[in-house]
Design goal:
Length: 102
């Protein structure tokens, strides 16, 4: 959701249009555009899940927008996994740092 279309090298269509809609007035049309943008991004670029629904609700008094995704994980550790972020301390071959003086 954080990648804009055109940011990925050699994948100009990859991404989601949410950034384009940030400053649009909150109308029913904008909510529908947000739902379509998220649905399209997940449908085309996230093979690990099946999207059941996208719900957009705004609270104009608080200036917030809530987006609820309901989905089902297809399987785990498929070869299409894209994992972010990467942690330095994760892994199977990580050992403790050497003690000073050893």
């Amino acid at each position: 959701m954080g990648t804009r279309p055109g940011e990925r090298v050699m994948q100009p269509d990859y991404g989601c249009r949410l950034h384009d809609l940030v400053f649009d007035p909150m109308t029913a049309e904008t909510e529908a555009e947000i739902e379509v943008a998220i649905t399209r991004a997940i449908l085309f670029f996230e093979p690990r899940i099946v999207l059941n629904s996208v719900q957009v609700a705004d609270d104009w008094r608080a200036g917030t927008l809530r987006i609820r995704l309901e989905f089902r994980v297809r399987s785990t550790n498929a070869r299409h996994n894209r994992v972010f972020p990467f942690y330095r301390t994760e892994g199977t071959l990580i050992s403790a740092p050497p003690e000073p003086g050893t």
